[in-house]
Prior knowledge:
GO cellular component, one term: membrane
Distance between the termini: 35 Å
GO molecular function: ATP binding; transmembrane receptor protein tyrosine kinase activity
Mean pLDDT: 74
Radius of gyration: 31 Å
Number of strands: 22
Structural class: alpha/beta
Subcellular location: Membrane
Bound molecules: adenosine-5'-triphosphate
Shape: elongated
Keywords: ATP-binding, Kinase, Leucine-rich repeat, Membrane, Nucleotide-binding, Phosphoprotein, Receptor, Repeat, Signal, Transferase, Transmembrane, Transmembrane helix, Tyrosine-protein kinase
EC number: 2.7.10.1
Amino acid sequence: DLSSERAALLSLRSSVGGRTLFWSTTQQNPCNFSGVQCNTAGNHIIALHLPGVSLSGQIPIGIFSNLTHLRTISLRFNSLSGPIPSDIASCVDLRNLYLQGNNFSGHFPDKFFSLHDLVRLNLAENDLSGEISSSFNNFTRLRTLYLDNNKFSGPLPELKFDKLEQFNVSFNNLNGFVPKSLQTQPKDVFLGNDLHGPPLDDVHVPPAVSVDFREKKRKKNRLSGGAIAGIVIGCVLAVVVVLLFVFIVCRKRSNKRRTNATISKQRHAEEEDVLGEKPLTGDGYPAAMPALPTSSAAAAGGVGDASGSKKLVFFNNSSTIFDLEDLLRASAEVLGKGTFGTAYKAVLEGGMMVAVKRLKDVSVSEPEFREKIEFVGAMDHKNLVPLRAYYYSKQEKLLVYDYMPMGTLSALLHGNKGGGRSPLNWESRLGIALGAARGIEFIHSHGDDVSHGNIKSSNVLLTKSLEACVSDFGLAQLMGPSTTPNRVAGYRAPEVTDPRRVSQKADVYSFGVLVLELLTGKPPTHALLNEEGVDLPRWVQSTVKEEWTSEVFDLELLRYQNVEEDMVQLLQLAIDCAAPYPDNRPTMSEVTSRIEELHGGGLNPDHVHGE
Ligand SMILES: Nc1ncnc2c1ncn2[C@@H]1O[C@H](COP(=O)(O)OP(=O)(O)OP(=O)(O)O)[C@@H](O)[C@H]1O
């Protein structure tokens, strides 16, 4: 008897913000609906979950007319009997109705056809009877329609749902032909009826067609003489280029060895840590870029251009040029220590701000470093943090990025939730997901083997207008095998064993976890210092199962009306991205276009402001 459990229910309800009446499926006590009364607080409940809790008997009339804000009703796998309560029709916002696995009988109530927002309807495994009405077409947003294993009879009407994803009418007493609109469904969903026509009848393919097809395929696979010649010439040229490169590198090395022999002593004395490790001040910040070298010290070693002086090397896309001395004169503060070294914010004399990353443990040779960093610097996209310049000397490797004033997504999501922090609204979160997706897609567009390798919320930085920019691209490949990125455990795809070799599909997995983090407001395992976090993909899967409900979403998001459907779609995309098998994950360009659809189609300015 639920009324005797009221205290437990109340405490459960308050733990989820007073909006969800949730009865755990592990609840063993048999209970029924007699004596359940809803007070005014009940009016705010938006989801009623009572799956598999041995509810039996008929649901008394009037329960649902007191719960008119319900969006989800789940009474699956109980022993409820009698007609489907018609007062469910008073829940005008209803999206999900799961009554599967009970003994409901009688007709599907006509009153329900006014529930225009219904998205998931699961009536499978009951004793429902009567004809399937063409009024089901009123559910224009329907994605799931499960009517299987009932006693529905008569013909199947034309059912046209633009967004239908799940459909099943098998094992009823239906007869006649499968209507045209449903002929694209798989055979299984119609079995166990007296139905005819495609897809139930096999379609015979004449052999001539398949022969033609094979012939075409063979032709397609054959290479023309010109193409073969092109490939041979290309290969020869590639070999010549490689040999030339090896020759130049060898010559350079032998020259360098000779020069080193004469000046090495003097250089070793002078060449020093450009920045030096200066002790931090009491509040954790040094007053300026530590240990500024004089220009003569700077000139003593390192990069060496034609004139022999140390220089910052700028990339083409940089509009503002400053030199190493300007940078070293700048006032600076530590932004944080990452896997690859320490990041500083430097304010140059004119007021320009840059973020300087001082790399440690670079394992690759100088030419390899330059080649890799030039590749990174050439990446120019509005959703990547621009790498403006780099500096290379034996002792010191610096990377100069644009400074991103709003900091990281991680800090914004999990930073101080107390006063002074403005919550991220739905529009911003969707925009951030889209920006990050576009940035990663751009990286992937440079070749099948080009990936980011370290996607996480602390590597997504934000502009003042909350535009997302992905950072740290290409750094993992510069480091030795002992450098393992910090706090990535929760983001790393299960198949990744070497953090320096992360496939594009593994980036997609990490991106999926990042989107789950955006939607749930929860950090994944070990994403934050000293915090456990959760295995986000598993947690979301276990909470959501088949029931698309609001419970997984960040409480801050629940205040936004009418975007739940979009949130559910983004959640589904994130779950797809975090599929355990890489082949089941979408590509980044598929991901981007799915988010673009939501961004373009779903966002109504009226919906993004709170209640
Ligand atoms: N371009 C930037 N603009 C503003 N802040 C930045 C910038 N780059 C880094 N930061 C800040 O510096 C901190 C340290 O960054 P860094 O990239 O070195 O480490 P991380 O992202 O925390 O970890 P990892 O190195 O494993 O990716 C970040 O948390 C961020 O707050």
